[in-house]
Write a structure and sequence with these properties.
With 362 residues, the protein is an alpha/beta fold. The protein has a 7-stranded parallel beta sheet, with helices on both faces. Strands 2-3-4 form a 3-stranded antiparallel beta sheet, with helices on one face. It is globular and about 60 Å long.
């Protein structure tokens, strides 16, 4: 299909303003290996990155911004293990001497901040330390019809990443003051980042990731989220609305207990609707007039282990169930990971072009 990007297509779905010309594609992330396979060459800079999203049929380029861009490379370089080897941070990977890449995971027990001494010693960035050059440099490379969506947030997630999940959980009971201090520092930095990001006129939406749930239930008490997490999002989304910018909320898992809170925070869209956790057709019936729904194409089987024909069938069903009236974007149920075959990624895209034209023909 010839690329025909139109960021208004994505915004129409995102803001529940009716049916655009077709159901948009939307991903927060596509793995480097998949992007390289799609283009047939390595991604080596912004022009290649933009070319991928353009040729793949998306209306925007997602880009990382804010605190995670500063702390995550530092975290990877400090991560314990493989002592004596030269390491550096690269994206979500730790790169060892010789070029071997291993995917990095946040610690399950102890992180970088487990006590007050480590909190004070951590190299917290100042507002002027944040680097927005990649957002700025993206603009001249965007084809007509394409804009940028910035991926930030991480208010709850960054807190336990820095502390380590086990340390974080014990601290909720034994050292809540430390949890509050870490989270307030993150909020301060992300607030400054958001205010700056909203000054770029080619940014059309903010995508806030913060995984607060497993597939069966919330990870932490909703009381904690309502006191320490959701108020910041309410402030952030109010700021976005002042600039006419919609906001997307990302969390895996079963969110049914707090979906009214997510709406109350001012989010207009929810991603990625993990299939084993929530039924997207039920969400459409219950919240389709208040939330655009993004994703839901299954990573557990269909995209990763299914056939291209099975991917096409699932996309067709999703569009039939959720597409009428608008307010739906086709995408994976998290992100397009490195173990998604290129043929399946292409099948998802092409099925969207085939079945997603409005008025829908079912």
């Amino acid at each position: 299909m010839k690329p025909e990007p139109d960021f208004n297509r994505f915004l129409t779905a995102l803001t529940l303003m009716g049916e655009p010309d077709r159901v948009p594609l939307a991903e927060a992330s596509v793995d480097y290996d998949v992007k390289c396979a799609f283009l047939g060459r390595p991604i080596q800079g912004i022009p290649d990155e933009v070319e991928f999203w353009f040729k793949a049929g998306y209306d925007f380029v997602p880009i990382q911004g804010g605190f995670r861009e500063v702390f995550w490379p530092h975290y990877l370089s400090q991560k314990k293990g493989n002592q004596g080897m030269t390491r550096k941070a690269q994206g979500d990977y730790t790169v060892y001497q010789g070029g071997t890449r291993t995917r990095a995971w946040a610690p399950e027990n102890k992180g970088l901040i487990t006590n007050w001494d480590e909190f004070h010693a951590f190299p917290w960035p100042r507002a002027e330390d944040l680097d927005y050059s990649i957002i700025q440099d993206l603009k001249p490379h965007l084809p007509t019809g394409m804009k940028a969506v910035v991926y930030m947030g991480y208010i709850y997630t960054s807190t336990w990443w820095l502390m380590g999940f086990e340390t974080f959980c014990f601290a909720l009971k034994e050292n809540m003051a430390l949890v509050e201090a870490v989270q307030e520092k993150i909020k301060e930095i992300q607030s400054q980042a958001l205010e700056t990001i909203l000054t770029f006129d080619h940014v059309i939406a903010i995508w806030h990731p913060d995984d607060i749930a497993y597939s069966e239930a919330l990870i932490v008490s909703p009381a904690y989220l309502r006191k320490y997490v959701f108020p910041w999002y309410k402030w952030a989304n109010a700021l976005c609305r002042q600039r006419g910018i919609p906001s997307i909320y990302h969390s895996d898992g079963r969110l049914l207990e707090v979906i009214p809170d997510i709406i109350d925070c001012g989010f207009t869209a929810l991603h990625p609707i993990e299939p084993k956790a929530m039924n997207i057709a039920e969400l459409k019936r219950n919240y389709g007039k208040r939330l655009c729904l993004i994703g839901n194409i299954d990573l557990g089987y269909t995209l990763t282990r299914g056939t291209p024909a099975e991917v096409e069938d699932e996309v067709k069903v999703r569009i039939r169930e959720v597409g009428p009236g608008g307010g739906y974007c086709v995408g994976s149920s998290n992100s397009v990971t490195s173990y998604v075959p290129l043929a399946n990624f292409n099948a998802m895209r092409e099925a969207t072009f085939k079945y997603g034209r409005y008025p829908l023909q079912f």
